[in-house]
Design goal:
This protein is 83% helix and 0% strand. By secondary structure, it is mainly α. It is globular, with a radius of gyration of 19 Å. The structure holds protoporphyrin IX containing FE.
């Protein structure tokens, strides 16, 4: 039984996903925040949405497809596209903060900066093919393209680590995924052992 029509549920989801951006932009327009103040929240929101988009897959493999996880999986592509949208907002804020292309080019060679650019670049293709028709066209290739998100995630964490020089925030965002991956690996290995024992 579905509680809401699909289009309504999707509209509500996108409204909720837009709330952090609206608050950031309100702060900027209202003069309460400088562009540089918004680099942290926009980047962090992007990373958090990436984590939320990557979690349901391994959790379903580990615990089986219950109703909650199936619902979560069904909005996964929206979460991934929203992560990309926040990365674009992050870039827009960076451009406003830096003011000139020369200033941006000047620091492009810094590891803390090029890792961000590369992470964003790797997110483009998975986000661009995140709609139903592209999924059908690409078939098995679609999953391969989505795997770019893992590389983007690692680079985003490296970017964070290199800019912040504090391993804790990046590690905290990696932790739920690392636990879900370990759990999946453990469940798969115990399943294989059980099947071998009873074969
Ligand atoms: C387009 C390329 C990017 C550039 C030029 C860029 C640049 C920056 C800069 C200048 C900061 C502020 C560092 C400071 O605190 O002074 C920052 C912070 C951050 N960026 Fe990026 N970034 C890019 C892409 C990304 C992407 C794609 C993500 C995530 C998917 C991301 C996540 C973060 C996070 C989480 C922070 C917070 C670090 C902190 O201040 O604690 N960035 N970025």
């Amino acid at each position: 039984m579905t509680l809401l029509p699909r289009a309504t549920a999707k509209a509500i989801l996108w409204l909720l996903l837009a709330v952090p951006a609206a608050l950031m932009l309100r702060g900027l327009v209202g003069g309460e925040a400088l562009p540089m103040d918004l680099l942290h929240p926009s980047g962090e929101t992007s990373v958090r949405l990436m984590v939320l988009a990557m979690l349901p897959g391994p959790l379903i493999d580990a615990f089986g497809p219950n109703r909650f996880l199936r619902g979560w999986l069904s909005i996964r592509r929206n979460l991934g596209v929203a992560a990309f949208a926040y990365a674009l907002l992050h870039l827009a804020i960076y451009v406003i903060d830096m003011r000139t292309i020369a200033a941006m080019l000047d620091e492009l060679g810094l590891p803390g900066i090029w890792t961000g650019w590369l992470a964003l670049f790797l997110m483009i293709l998975p986000a661009a093919v995140s709609f139903d028709r592209a999924m059908r066209w690409l078939g098995r290739g679609w999953k391969r393209i989505q795997r770019l998100v893992y590389a983007a995630f690692v680079l985003a964490l490296a970017h964070w680590l290199l800019l912040d020089w504090n391993w804790k925030p990046a590690a905290i965002h990696l932790l739920p995924l690392a636990m879900a991956w370990l759990l999946r690996a453990w469940r798969v290995s115990t399943k294989v052992t059980r099947e071998r024992t009873f074969a």
